[in-house]
Amino acid sequence: MRQMKVDKLGIDLLTHDPVVILKDLEGKRFLPILIGPFEATAIALALEGTAVPRPLSHDLMRTMLESLHASLEQIVIHDIKDSTFFAKLIVRQNGDTQEIDARPSDGIALALRMQAPIFVSDKIVLEETVADKKAEAEETQRFKKFIEELKPGDFKE
């Protein structure tokens, strides 16, 4: 699994639907996920730290978990079927862990409110993420410079 964080929210140019873009912690891979407008708003409010006069659904979920002395350990985006992503919430209460099925957008909105990490399965990372071409080019340049600066003495023990 690879830990990721929310990079940005946007609009898909083809469908005009909201999209959340996750980025791995190294900044090398991106995962775009189409989401609904309400979930996009919930994620945006959490990213901005904007207070709302009445609790939204994800605020309610956070309050319920906290009142039950449960914590959101992490969310895991673990599968995709027919272009639909599947996620699970990993919730801990009294030392017991439960996995709860969730839409990735709801999991992300809740994770942002509870400062829980977001993980993506290796399967999804391999099949669905997009490489950051700029980061790859910079890494290639650093490697070329490293090779050019090598001296025979660098290979001694």
From the N-terminal CA to the C-terminal CA, the straight-line distance is: 36 Å
Oligomer: single chain
Enter the CATH topology name: Bifunctional nuclease domain
CATH superfamily: Bifunctional nuclease domain
**Would you count the extended β strands for me?**
8
Number of helices: 5
Proportion of residues in extended strands: 35-45%
Low-pLDDT segments, ≥5 res: none
Total separate domains:
1
Describe the structure.
This protein has 157 residues and is α+β, with helices and mostly antiparallel strands. The protein has one domain: Bifunctional nuclease domain. 36% of the residues lie in helices and 36% in strands. It has an eight-stranded mixed beta sheet with strand order 6-5-4-7-1-2-3-8. A hairpin with a 2-residue loop joins strand 4 and strand 5. Helix 1 runs parallel beside helix 3 and helix 2 crosses helix 3. The protein is globular. The mean pLDDT is 89.
Task: Record keyword descriptors for this entry.
157 residues, alpha+beta, Bifunctional nuclease domain, 5 helices, 36% helix
Spell out the blueprint of helices and strands.
Layout: E1 2-11, E2 18-24, E3 29-34, H1 37-48, H2 57-67, E4 70-81, E5 84-93, E6 96-102, H3 104-114, E7 118-120, H4 122-128, E8 130-131, H5 133-148
Parallel strand pairs: 4-7
Antiparallel strand pairs: 1-2, 1-7, 2-3, 3-8, 4-5, 5-6
